[in-house]
Amino acid sequence: MKNYRLSELLIAMMILLIASCNMSEQTGKKGADTPKDENWLRVSGDQIVNQKGDTVFLRGFGLGGMLHMENFINGYPGNEQTMREGLLEVLGREKYDLFFNTFLKNYFTEADAEYIHSLGLNLVRIPINYHLFEDDINPGVIKEEAFEHLDRVIELCAKYRIYTIIDLHALPGFQNQHWHSDNPTHRALFWDHRDFQDRALHLWEVIAGRYRDQSWVAGYDLINEPGDPTGKRVFPYFKRLREAVMKIDPNHIFFLEGDRYATDFSAFTEIWDNVVYTNHDYALPGFIYGGDYPGVTRNRYINRDTLESDFLKKSEFKLKNKVPIWVGEFDPVSTGIPEKDEMRYQILKDQLQYFDKYKVSWCIWLYKDLGLQAIIYQKKETPYMKLISSFLKKKERLGADAWGSTDKDIRPVIEPVEELFRREFPDYNPYPTGIARHITLLVRNILISEALVPEYCNLFKGLSDEELVALAESFRFENYAKRDRLEAILTGREK
Length: 495
Fold this sequence. Notes:
By secondary structure, the chain is α/β, with parallel strands linked by helices. It is built from 17 helices and 15 strands.
């Protein structure tokens, strides 16, 4: 009898043990169980490692232009949502959906994943726009269909052993003051309204619930380039956001960007487990307005030593606390002038050199565009480029894109405004970059760009379904040319 009861007890214990093992394999569902897949990444000291303990350097591209669009990448003026509203009015719902669904299906295909893998790179950062996942008119109601395209990119990358980082690039209410947060204004209202913050938190809870078991998702880049004028609200919100998401997914890495557009960590007072603190490392001479390199840009002489010094200043928080460094964005732009572009390539080589020196993971901005800085660019003979080629010239002449054009042709308009403010408001210093760039933002990137939106949208008027499909398919990999020099530099063939 005793033996019988002992047997029952042993069987019950074995059942409990087996059940416990099965639960531990279901990572992230109800606890902080350690993932079993060796490809899962985590933070260990100042390195990112897999489950075998091997150091993994995440190096690759940002996939801008797809689930989050930007004007210089896709060709439209201003911000994405204003453009989409204009196209919906011109095309009507049926044709609008046909164009954008075809566009999203073709922007990143297996050919793209195969190409990135062939370069020996292992990362795609996927910027997303909250607008795709919820409507402002129905806040908090998540659109399941939006995940189809995010799922596909993640799955294709995983097939080719490429990690992905999901990057919330545009948040409700706008987390910074510029067009690249899909902001049609110059105000970052996200930091002023709890409602916007709650909606972003909810979206991240949904994302975490969906991808918590996927080992080839390296982690979550919670907010791209936050810009809080007070300098006090970014860190507390990160704390709240991280705590909420960890209840759903305790295993993925969190990538946290500094304030002032991923450059300032002065308000960060704690070091958290399994977190990578992220800065962006754009070099001033590499901007569209940049001077010679080495040489003077914005009244400052800049060479390789000053670039490295600037990088170390932005990375001081990480180096001091001995945590990993991931540069989430960098990339000089092309000018089309051979001798200038040679300088831009030298900037890139110098940056990659000190990234190697400090064992930095990195993600270059950008994978594909229309010819400004990405490693592949759309060929001029595609239906889309033929449609917008004249418009692009006008947009450049008017300086409508902050990233892709200068104000040289409209200086006679800009200069009197600048002089007025210098004379009448000498102490006015708007966040984040001062009066000159503030005026540029308001005049070029908002006022002029807003006026250009109808002109861009009217290019699509009267097009047939077949023509719209052809335009959308222009964004397929085979319709892009490669920048051979950039490829050689990124793969290490050219030092």
